[in-house]
Amino acid sequence: MIEELGAKVKAASKEVAKLSATDKNSFLCQLAESLIQNTERIIQENDRDVAKAKEHGISEIMVDRLRLTAQRVADMAVGLRQIADLPDPIGQVLQGFTNLDGLKILQKRVALGTVGMIFESRPNVTIDAFSLCFKTGNSVLLRGGSDALFSNMVLVEIIKENLRERGITDSAVELLSDTSHEEAEKMMQADQFLDVLIPRGSARLINKVKEKSKVPVIETGVGNCTVFVDESADLEMASQIVINAKTQRPSVCNAAESLVVHAKVAAEFLPKLCEDIKKIHAVEFRADEAALKILQSQENCPAIAATTEDFGTEYLDYIMSVKTVNSLDEAIEHINRYSSRHSESIVTCDYFNAQKFQDEIDAAAVYVNASTRFTDGFVFGLGAEIGISTQKLHARGPMGLEALTSTKYLIEGTGQTR
Protein backbone atom coordinates (compact mmCIF):
# COMPACT_ATOMS: atom_id res chain seq x y z
CA MET A 1 0.00 0.00 0.00
CA ILE A 2 2.81 2.42 0.84
CA GLU A 3 4.45 1.83 -2.54
CA GLU A 4 1.19 2.59 -4.36
CA LEU A 5 0.27 5.68 -2.32
CA GLY A 6 3.85 6.92 -2.22
CA ALA A 7 4.14 6.78 -6.00
CA LYS A 8 0.86 8.67 -6.36
CA VAL A 9 1.78 11.54 -4.05
CA LYS A 10 5.28 11.73 -5.53
CA ALA A 11 3.83 12.15 -9.03
CA ALA A 12 1.19 14.59 -7.76
CA SER A 13 3.83 16.82 -6.16
CA LYS A 14 5.05 17.83 -9.62
CA GLU A 15 1.57 18.99 -10.62
CA VAL A 16 0.79 20.76 -7.34
CA ALA A 17 4.08 22.66 -7.55
CA LYS A 18 2.94 24.21 -10.86
CA LEU A 19 -0.32 25.67 -9.50
CA SER A 20 -0.55 29.45 -9.34
CA ALA A 21 -1.17 31.29 -6.08
CA THR A 22 -4.59 32.33 -7.43
CA ASP A 23 -5.58 28.73 -8.15
CA LYS A 24 -4.41 27.52 -4.74
CA ASN A 25 -6.15 30.30 -2.84
CA SER A 26 -9.38 29.86 -4.77
CA PHE A 27 -9.36 26.14 -4.07
CA LEU A 28 -8.78 26.62 -0.33
CA CYS A 29 -11.76 29.00 -0.13
CA GLN A 30 -13.89 26.46 -2.01
CA LEU A 31 -12.79 23.72 0.38
CA ALA A 32 -13.68 25.91 3.38
CA GLU A 33 -17.20 26.31 2.04
CA SER A 34 -17.43 22.60 1.31
CA LEU A 35 -16.51 21.72 4.91
CA ILE A 36 -19.33 23.92 6.18
CA GLN A 37 -21.77 22.33 3.74
CA ASN A 38 -20.67 18.85 4.82
CA THR A 39 -20.70 19.51 8.56
CA GLU A 40 -23.41 16.95 9.27
CA ARG A 41 -21.61 14.32 7.18
CA ILE A 42 -18.33 14.99 8.99
CA ILE A 43 -19.90 14.85 12.46
CA GLN A 44 -21.75 11.64 11.59
CA GLU A 45 -18.44 9.88 10.77
CA ASN A 46 -16.71 11.47 13.75
CA ASP A 47 -19.48 10.12 16.00
CA ARG A 48 -18.46 6.61 14.91
CA ASP A 49 -14.90 7.27 16.08
CA VAL A 50 -16.09 8.79 19.35
CA ALA A 51 -18.41 5.85 20.06
CA LYS A 52 -15.58 3.39 19.36
CA ALA A 53 -13.24 5.32 21.65
CA LYS A 54 -15.78 5.25 24.48
CA GLU A 55 -16.30 1.51 24.00
CA HIS A 56 -12.55 1.05 24.43
CA GLY A 57 -12.59 2.99 27.68
CA ILE A 58 -10.70 6.04 26.40
CA SER A 59 -10.75 8.89 28.92
CA GLU A 60 -13.10 11.80 28.30
CA ILE A 61 -10.11 14.13 28.03
CA MET A 62 -8.68 12.10 25.15
CA VAL A 63 -12.13 11.74 23.58
CA ASP A 64 -12.26 15.53 23.52
CA ARG A 65 -9.12 15.56 21.34
CA LEU A 66 -10.96 13.32 18.91
CA ARG A 67 -14.36 14.99 18.90
CA LEU A 68 -15.49 17.27 16.07
CA THR A 69 -18.35 19.70 16.62
CA ALA A 70 -20.01 22.17 14.28
CA GLN A 71 -17.86 24.91 15.84
CA ARG A 72 -14.66 22.94 15.32
CA VAL A 73 -15.58 22.32 11.68
CA ALA A 74 -16.28 26.05 11.33
CA ASP A 75 -12.88 26.78 12.88
CA MET A 76 -11.22 24.55 10.29
CA ALA A 77 -12.96 26.53 7.56
CA VAL A 78 -11.76 29.79 9.09
CA GLY A 79 -8.22 28.40 9.12
CA LEU A 80 -8.48 27.53 5.43
CA ARG A 81 -9.57 31.06 4.57
CA GLN A 82 -6.78 32.51 6.67
CA ILE A 83 -4.24 30.42 4.79
CA ALA A 84 -5.72 31.54 1.48
CA ASP A 85 -5.27 35.18 2.59
CA LEU A 86 -1.61 34.74 3.52
CA PRO A 87 1.14 35.62 1.03
CA ASP A 88 2.30 32.64 -1.01
CA PRO A 89 5.94 31.99 -0.09
CA ILE A 90 6.64 29.96 -3.24
CA GLY A 91 8.79 31.93 -5.65
CA GLN A 92 9.74 34.51 -3.05
CA VAL A 93 13.25 35.85 -3.70
CA LEU A 94 15.29 35.76 -0.50
CA GLN A 95 18.36 37.39 -2.00
CA GLY A 96 19.73 38.38 -5.35
CA PHE A 97 23.16 39.67 -6.33
CA THR A 98 25.87 39.63 -8.98
CA ASN A 99 29.10 38.04 -7.83
CA LEU A 100 32.67 38.96 -8.79
CA ASP A 101 32.52 36.57 -11.75
CA GLY A 102 29.53 38.41 -13.18
CA LEU A 103 27.09 35.61 -12.32
CA LYS A 104 23.57 36.73 -11.42
CA ILE A 105 22.54 34.65 -8.41
CA LEU A 106 19.01 34.41 -6.99
CA GLN A 107 17.86 32.40 -3.98
CA LYS A 108 14.15 31.53 -4.18
CA ARG A 109 11.67 29.61 -2.05
CA VAL A 110 10.47 26.31 -3.50
CA ALA A 111 8.26 23.48 -2.29
CA LEU A 112 9.74 20.65 -0.25
CA GLY A 113 8.02 18.15 -2.56
CA THR A 114 6.24 15.28 -0.82
CA VAL A 115 5.42 15.52 2.88
CA GLY A 116 4.53 12.55 5.09
CA MET A 117 2.49 13.14 8.24
CA ILE A 118 1.99 10.59 11.03
CA PHE A 119 -0.37 11.84 13.73
CA GLU A 120 -2.72 10.74 16.48
CA SER A 121 -6.28 11.44 17.58
CA ARG A 122 -6.99 14.96 16.33
CA PRO A 123 -8.73 14.79 12.93
CA ASN A 124 -8.43 18.56 12.38
CA VAL A 125 -4.76 17.82 11.63
CA THR A 126 -5.95 16.30 8.33
CA ILE A 127 -7.21 19.68 7.15
CA ASP A 128 -4.32 21.66 8.66
CA ALA A 129 -1.69 19.42 7.09
CA PHE A 130 -3.31 19.31 3.67
CA SER A 131 -4.01 23.04 3.44
CA LEU A 132 -0.51 24.12 4.46
CA CYS A 133 1.11 21.58 2.14
CA PHE A 134 -1.17 22.51 -0.76
CA LYS A 135 -0.56 26.25 -0.36
CA THR A 136 3.19 25.63 -0.47
CA GLY A 137 3.02 23.41 -3.57
CA ASN A 138 3.56 20.12 -1.74
CA SER A 139 1.61 16.88 -1.90
CA VAL A 140 0.99 15.03 1.38
CA LEU A 141 0.62 11.44 2.55
CA LEU A 142 -1.32 11.22 5.81
CA ARG A 143 -1.36 8.43 8.36
CA GLY A 144 -3.70 9.17 11.26
CA GLY A 145 -4.43 7.00 14.28
CA SER A 146 -6.92 4.16 14.21
CA ASP A 147 -9.08 6.03 16.73
CA ALA A 148 -9.82 8.78 14.16
CA LEU A 149 -10.03 6.63 11.02
CA PHE A 150 -13.63 7.41 10.02
CA SER A 151 -13.14 11.13 10.63
CA ASN A 152 -9.93 11.25 8.60
CA MET A 153 -11.46 9.24 5.77
CA VAL A 154 -14.44 11.55 5.33
CA LEU A 155 -12.25 14.66 5.46
CA VAL A 156 -9.91 13.27 2.80
CA GLU A 157 -12.92 12.23 0.69
CA ILE A 158 -14.21 15.82 0.80
CA ILE A 159 -10.80 17.20 -0.15
CA LYS A 160 -10.54 14.77 -3.07
CA GLU A 161 -14.07 15.56 -4.29
CA ASN A 162 -13.16 19.24 -4.46
CA LEU A 163 -9.81 18.58 -6.14
CA ARG A 164 -11.48 16.55 -8.88
CA GLU A 165 -14.12 19.24 -9.34
CA ARG A 166 -11.33 21.77 -10.00
CA GLY A 167 -9.44 19.46 -12.34
CA ILE A 168 -6.51 19.06 -9.91
CA THR A 169 -4.98 15.67 -9.23
CA ASP A 170 -6.70 14.15 -6.22
CA SER A 171 -3.44 12.47 -5.22
CA ALA A 172 -2.35 15.84 -3.87
CA VAL A 173 -3.52 14.14 -0.68
CA GLU A 174 -3.57 10.45 0.15
CA LEU A 175 -4.56 8.71 3.38
CA LEU A 176 -2.97 5.50 4.62
CA SER A 177 -6.11 3.75 5.80
CA ASP A 178 -4.17 0.74 7.06
CA THR A 179 -3.25 2.02 10.54
CA SER A 180 -1.14 -0.98 11.50
CA HIS A 181 2.31 -0.43 12.97
CA GLU A 182 3.80 -2.43 10.10
CA GLU A 183 2.49 -0.01 7.47
CA ALA A 184 3.54 2.97 9.58
CA GLU A 185 7.09 1.62 9.70
CA LYS A 186 7.06 1.13 5.94
CA MET A 187 6.10 4.78 5.63
CA MET A 188 9.07 5.73 7.80
CA GLN A 189 11.33 3.87 5.38
CA ALA A 190 9.83 5.32 2.19
CA ASP A 191 12.57 7.82 1.41
CA GLN A 192 12.17 7.09 -2.31
CA PHE A 193 8.74 8.79 -2.13
CA LEU A 194 8.82 11.19 0.83
CA ASP A 195 11.04 14.25 1.20
CA VAL A 196 10.23 14.88 4.85
CA LEU A 197 8.27 13.14 7.62
CA ILE A 198 6.47 15.01 10.40
CA PRO A 199 5.23 13.02 13.43
CA ARG A 200 2.64 14.71 15.62
CA GLY A 201 1.47 13.05 18.81
CA SER A 202 2.81 11.38 21.92
CA ALA A 203 6.45 11.22 22.96
CA ARG A 204 6.35 7.49 22.24
CA LEU A 205 5.22 8.08 18.65
CA ILE A 206 7.74 10.84 18.00
CA ASN A 207 10.64 8.87 19.47
CA LYS A 208 9.70 5.81 17.43
CA VAL A 209 9.65 7.83 14.21
CA LYS A 210 13.02 9.42 15.05
CA GLU A 211 14.56 6.00 15.71
CA LYS A 212 13.18 4.12 12.71
CA SER A 213 12.80 6.68 9.93
CA LYS A 214 15.04 6.82 6.86
CA VAL A 215 13.07 9.91 5.79
CA PRO A 216 14.31 13.23 7.26
CA VAL A 217 12.17 14.01 10.35
CA ILE A 218 10.92 17.31 11.76
CA GLU A 219 10.26 16.66 15.45
CA THR A 220 7.08 18.20 16.87
CA GLY A 221 4.73 18.39 19.66
CA VAL A 222 5.52 16.91 23.08
CA GLY A 223 4.51 19.64 25.51
CA ASN A 224 5.80 19.57 29.07
CA CYS A 225 5.00 23.27 29.49
CA THR A 226 5.66 25.26 32.67
CA VAL A 227 4.35 28.37 34.39
CA PHE A 228 6.78 30.03 36.81
CA VAL A 229 5.31 32.32 39.48
CA ASP A 230 8.03 34.81 40.37
CA GLU A 231 8.35 36.46 43.77
CA SER A 232 7.15 39.76 42.25
CA ALA A 233 4.12 38.24 40.51
CA ASP A 234 0.60 39.63 40.71
CA LEU A 235 -0.86 36.56 42.42
CA GLU A 236 -4.38 37.07 41.10
CA MET A 237 -3.00 37.20 37.56
CA ALA A 238 -0.79 34.19 38.26
CA SER A 239 -3.72 32.14 39.50
CA GLN A 240 -5.82 32.89 36.42
CA ILE A 241 -2.93 32.11 34.08
CA VAL A 242 -2.20 28.76 35.75
CA ILE A 243 -5.89 27.83 35.76
CA ASN A 244 -6.25 28.63 32.07
CA ALA A 245 -3.00 26.93 31.07
CA LYS A 246 -3.88 23.75 33.00
CA THR A 247 -7.66 23.36 32.73
CA GLN A 248 -8.92 25.11 29.59
CA ARG A 249 -8.04 22.09 27.43
CA PRO A 250 -5.64 19.74 29.21
CA SER A 251 -5.42 17.26 26.32
CA VAL A 252 -3.38 19.55 24.04
CA CYS A 253 0.38 20.05 23.81
CA ASN A 254 0.37 23.71 24.91
CA ALA A 255 -1.43 23.00 28.18
CA ALA A 256 0.76 23.56 31.25
CA GLU A 257 1.94 20.40 32.99
CA SER A 258 4.32 21.97 35.52
CA LEU A 259 4.13 24.79 38.03
CA VAL A 260 7.23 26.39 39.52
CA VAL A 261 6.72 28.81 42.43
CA HIS A 262 9.18 31.11 44.17
CA ALA A 263 9.45 30.09 47.82
CA LYS A 264 8.79 33.66 49.00
CA VAL A 265 5.22 33.59 47.62
CA ALA A 266 4.43 29.86 47.85
CA ALA A 267 2.66 30.04 51.22
CA GLU A 268 0.35 32.75 49.89
CA PHE A 269 -0.03 31.66 46.29
CA LEU A 270 -0.62 27.91 46.54
CA PRO A 271 -3.65 28.14 48.89
CA LYS A 272 -5.11 30.81 46.62
CA LEU A 273 -4.58 28.61 43.56
CA CYS A 274 -6.21 25.65 45.32
CA GLU A 275 -9.26 27.73 46.18
CA ASP A 276 -9.55 29.22 42.69
CA ILE A 277 -8.84 26.15 40.58
CA LYS A 278 -11.36 23.85 42.26
CA LYS A 279 -14.12 26.23 41.09
CA ILE A 280 -13.17 25.28 37.52
CA HIS A 281 -11.97 21.67 37.80
CA ALA A 282 -10.21 19.56 40.39
CA VAL A 283 -6.49 19.13 39.69
CA GLU A 284 -4.15 16.66 41.36
CA PHE A 285 -0.87 18.31 42.34
CA ARG A 286 2.34 16.26 42.49
CA ALA A 287 4.52 18.44 44.64
CA ASP A 288 7.98 18.69 46.16
CA GLU A 289 8.30 18.60 49.94
CA ALA A 290 7.83 22.32 50.57
CA ALA A 291 4.83 22.69 48.26
CA LEU A 292 3.26 19.43 49.45
CA LYS A 293 3.19 20.67 53.04
CA ILE A 294 1.29 23.78 52.00
CA LEU A 295 -1.09 22.01 49.62
CA GLN A 296 -2.02 19.21 52.02
CA SER A 297 -3.02 21.78 54.62
CA GLN A 298 -5.77 23.01 52.29
CA GLU A 299 -9.27 21.57 52.23
CA ASN A 300 -10.21 19.62 49.08
CA CYS A 301 -6.83 20.13 47.42
CA PRO A 302 -5.59 16.76 46.11
CA ALA A 303 -1.81 16.58 46.44
CA ILE A 304 0.77 13.80 46.59
CA ALA A 305 4.56 13.71 46.72
CA ALA A 306 6.24 14.20 43.34
CA THR A 307 8.81 11.86 41.89
CA THR A 308 11.66 13.08 39.70
CA GLU A 309 9.79 11.70 36.69
CA ASP A 310 6.76 13.86 37.46
CA PHE A 311 8.64 17.05 36.64
CA GLY A 312 9.29 15.82 33.09
CA THR A 313 5.89 14.25 32.37
CA GLU A 314 3.32 15.40 29.82
CA TYR A 315 0.16 14.30 31.64
CA LEU A 316 -2.53 15.46 29.19
CA ASP A 317 -4.83 15.26 32.21
CA TYR A 318 -5.90 17.25 35.27
CA ILE A 319 -2.54 16.63 36.94
CA MET A 320 0.25 19.13 37.55
CA SER A 321 3.71 18.92 39.07
CA VAL A 322 4.73 21.65 41.54
CA LYS A 323 8.29 22.74 42.36
CA THR A 324 9.36 25.49 44.77
CA VAL A 325 12.57 27.42 44.08
CA ASN A 326 14.58 30.06 45.92
CA SER A 327 15.63 32.15 42.95
CA LEU A 328 14.99 32.93 39.31
CA ASP A 329 18.23 31.16 38.39
CA GLU A 330 17.01 28.00 40.12
CA ALA A 331 13.70 28.23 38.27
CA ILE A 332 15.46 28.59 34.92
CA GLU A 333 17.77 25.67 35.69
CA HIS A 334 14.82 23.44 36.70
CA ILE A 335 12.74 24.33 33.65
CA ASN A 336 15.59 23.87 31.19
CA ARG A 337 16.36 20.50 32.78
CA TYR A 338 12.85 19.05 32.51
CA SER A 339 11.29 21.06 29.68
CA SER A 340 10.36 19.56 26.32
CA ARG A 341 11.38 22.92 24.75
CA HIS A 342 7.79 23.73 23.78
CA SER A 343 6.30 26.67 25.72
CA GLU A 344 7.25 28.22 29.08
CA SER A 345 5.81 31.23 30.92
CA ILE A 346 6.85 33.55 33.75
CA VAL A 347 4.39 35.61 35.77
CA THR A 348 6.27 38.62 37.12
CA CYS A 349 6.15 42.36 37.70
CA ASP A 350 9.94 42.63 37.44
CA TYR A 351 11.08 43.77 33.97
CA PHE A 352 14.62 42.46 34.39
CA ASN A 353 13.41 39.03 35.60
CA ALA A 354 11.11 38.84 32.58
CA GLN A 355 13.95 39.64 30.19
CA LYS A 356 16.33 37.17 31.86
CA PHE A 357 13.69 34.43 31.71
CA GLN A 358 13.04 35.02 28.01
CA ASP A 359 16.76 35.19 27.23
CA GLU A 360 17.80 32.05 29.11
CA ILE A 361 14.86 29.64 28.77
CA ASP A 362 15.49 27.20 25.92
CA ALA A 363 12.07 26.77 24.33
CA ALA A 364 10.25 27.50 21.09
CA ALA A 365 7.87 29.97 22.79
CA VAL A 366 8.65 31.91 25.97
CA TYR A 367 5.89 34.02 27.57
CA VAL A 368 5.73 36.83 30.08
CA ASN A 369 2.42 37.19 31.95
CA ALA A 370 0.38 35.02 29.60
CA SER A 371 -0.90 31.46 29.33
CA THR A 372 1.05 28.85 27.37
CA ARG A 373 -2.23 27.97 25.63
CA PHE A 374 -1.54 30.65 23.00
CA THR A 375 1.20 28.65 21.24
CA ASP A 376 -0.75 27.86 18.13
CA GLY A 377 -0.37 28.50 14.43
CA PHE A 378 -3.85 30.01 14.17
CA VAL A 379 -3.17 32.43 17.05
CA PHE A 380 0.27 33.33 15.68
CA GLY A 381 -1.26 34.37 12.36
CA LEU A 382 -0.12 31.32 10.39
CA GLY A 383 -3.68 30.28 9.51
CA ALA A 384 -3.03 26.81 10.88
CA GLU A 385 -0.04 24.70 11.81
CA ILE A 386 1.29 21.38 10.67
CA GLY A 387 2.87 20.98 14.11
CA ILE A 388 4.89 22.81 16.74
CA SER A 389 8.55 22.05 16.23
CA THR A 390 10.58 21.60 19.41
CA GLN A 391 13.85 21.14 17.56
CA LYS A 392 16.14 23.86 16.24
CA LEU A 393 17.06 22.90 12.68
CA HIS A 394 14.87 23.97 9.78
CA ALA A 395 11.88 25.06 11.88
CA ARG A 396 11.02 25.94 15.47
CA GLY A 397 7.68 26.69 17.11
CA PRO A 398 4.33 26.63 15.23
CA MET A 399 5.10 25.53 11.68
CA GLY A 400 3.23 27.41 8.99
CA LEU A 401 3.86 28.00 5.31
CA GLU A 402 7.54 28.94 5.34
CA ALA A 403 8.42 25.83 7.36
CA LEU A 404 7.14 23.71 4.46
CA THR A 405 9.47 25.26 1.91
CA SER A 406 13.10 24.92 0.94
CA THR A 407 15.19 27.12 -1.31
CA LYS A 408 17.12 26.79 -4.53
CA TYR A 409 19.75 28.98 -6.16
CA LEU A 410 19.17 30.16 -9.71
CA ILE A 411 22.33 31.29 -11.50
CA GLU A 412 22.55 33.12 -14.82
CA GLY A 413 25.79 33.62 -16.65
CA THR A 414 27.15 34.93 -19.94
CA GLY A 415 29.56 32.11 -20.69
CA GLN A 416 31.67 32.17 -17.51
CA THR A 417 33.96 29.20 -16.77
CA ARG A 418 36.09 28.44 -13.72
Automatic annotation (TrEMBL):
It comes from the Bacteria. It is found in: Cytoplasm. Catalyzes the NADPH-dependent reduction of L-glutamate 5-phosphate into L-glutamate 5-semialdehyde and phosphate. The product spontaneously undergoes cyclization to form 1-pyrroline-5-carboxylate. Its EC number is 1.2.1.41. The keyword Nucleus does not apply. It catalyses: L-glutamate 5-semialdehyde + phosphate + NADP(+) = L-glutamyl 5-phosphate + NADPH + H(+). CDD domains: ALDH_F18-19_ProA-GPR. Belongs to the gamma-glutamyl phosphate reductase family. Pathway: Amino-acid biosynthesis; L-proline biosynthesis; L-glutamate 5-semialdehyde from L-glutamate: step 2/2. It is an enzyme of class 1 (oxidoreductase). Residues 8-282, 319-381 form the Aldehyde dehydrogenase domain. SUPFAM superfamilies: ALDH-like (SSF53720). This is Gamma-glutamyl phosphate reductase. HAMAP family: ProA (MF_00412). The keyword NADP applies. InterPro entries: Ald_DH/histidinol_DH, Ald_DH_C, Ald_DH_N, Aldehyde_DH_dom, G-glutamylP_reductase_CS, Glu-5-SA_DH, GPR_dom. It holds the Pfam family Aldedh. Keywords: Amino-acid biosynthesis, Cytoplasm, NADP, Oxidoreductase, Proline biosynthesis. GO terms for molecular function: glutamate-5-semialdehyde dehydrogenase activity.
